[in-house]
Write a structure and sequence with these properties.
Shape: globular
Structural class: mainly alpha
Mean pLDDT: 91
Low-confidence stretches: none
Radius of gyration: 16 Å
Distance between the termini: 17 Å
Number of strands: 2
Strand content: under 5%
Number of helices: 7
Strand order of the largest sheet: 1-2
Helix content: over 70%
C-alpha cells in the first residue's frame, strides 16, 4: 500500500472521530458529521480503503479510546447506536464501489453517496431496535424507535449532495499522479 493511501486512511479515521463530536442531540440517534466523513472516505479513497479507514475508527473505539459519540470500550456494542458504526463500514464500502464502477462523474458520486446511506440506516435502525427491545427491554413502540433513527435521513441526503460536489473537485487532485503515469 502506498504511503499516500496510508495517510489518507488514517486521516479519514481521525475525521470520522472528530465528526462524532460535532453533533445535534436527538433522543435515540444524534445527528453527527460522521456520515459526511465516512461517505467522503468512500468517494475519495474507494470502497476498500474507505472501509478500512472507518474500520480503524471502530476498532480504536472498541479498544477503549473515547471516540464514539457516547465514549468507547467494548461495552459500546450494547449501545443502540452501535449498529450505525457497523453500517458506516458497509456504507463506505458501497459508496466507494459505486463511485469507482466507472468514471467518477457527479451523478455517479451522488448515486454512490446515496446508496451508501441505505446500509447505514438499515443496519443502524435494525440494530437499534434489537438492542432497545431485546437488551434494554424498552416498552416504546417499534415505530417510534425506527422513526427517531430515520429522522437524520433528510440531513444526510443534503450531506450526500455536498459530498458528491466536494468529491468531484478533489478526486482529480488526489489522483493527479496516477493520471500522469
Amino acid at each position: 500500500m502506498k504511503t499516500k493511501n496510508l495517510i489518507l486512511i488514517s486521516m479519514f479515521a481521525a475525521l470520522t472521530a472528530v465528526g462524532g463530536f460535532i453533533k445535534i442531540p436527538m433522543p435515540f440517534c444524534p445527528i453527527t458529521l460522521q456520515i459526511l466523513f465516512t461517505t467522503l472516505a468512500g468517494v475519495l479513497l474507494g470502497g476498500r480503503n474507505g472501509a478500512i479507514s472507518v474500520g480503524i475508527y471502530v476498532v480504536l473505539g472498541l479498544m477503549g479510546v473515547p471516540i464514539f459519540t457516547g465514549g468507547g470500550g467494548i461495552s459500546y456494542i450494547l449501545y443502540p447506536t452501535f449498529g450505525f458504526l457497523i453500517g458506516f463500514i458497509v456504507g463506505t464500502y458501497v459508496t466507494g464501489k459505486i463511485c469507482y464502477s466507472g468514471k467518477p462523474t457527479f451523478k455517479r458520486l451522488l448515486l454512490g453517496s446515496l446508496a451508501g446511506c441505505i446500509p447505514i440506516f438499515l443496519i443502524g435502525t435494525l440494530y437499534d431496535i434489537a438492542i432497545t427491545f431485546l437488551y434494554l427491554k424498552s416498552d416504546a413502540a417499534v415505530f417510534t424507535v425506527a422513526f427517531q433513527c430515520l429522522l437524520p435521513l433528510t440531513w444526510d441526503v443534503f450531506l450526500c449532495v455536498f459530498t458528491a460536489f466536494i468529491g468531484k473537485r478533489l478526486i482529480p487532485v488526489l489522483h493527479k499522479e496516477e493520471m500522469i503515469s
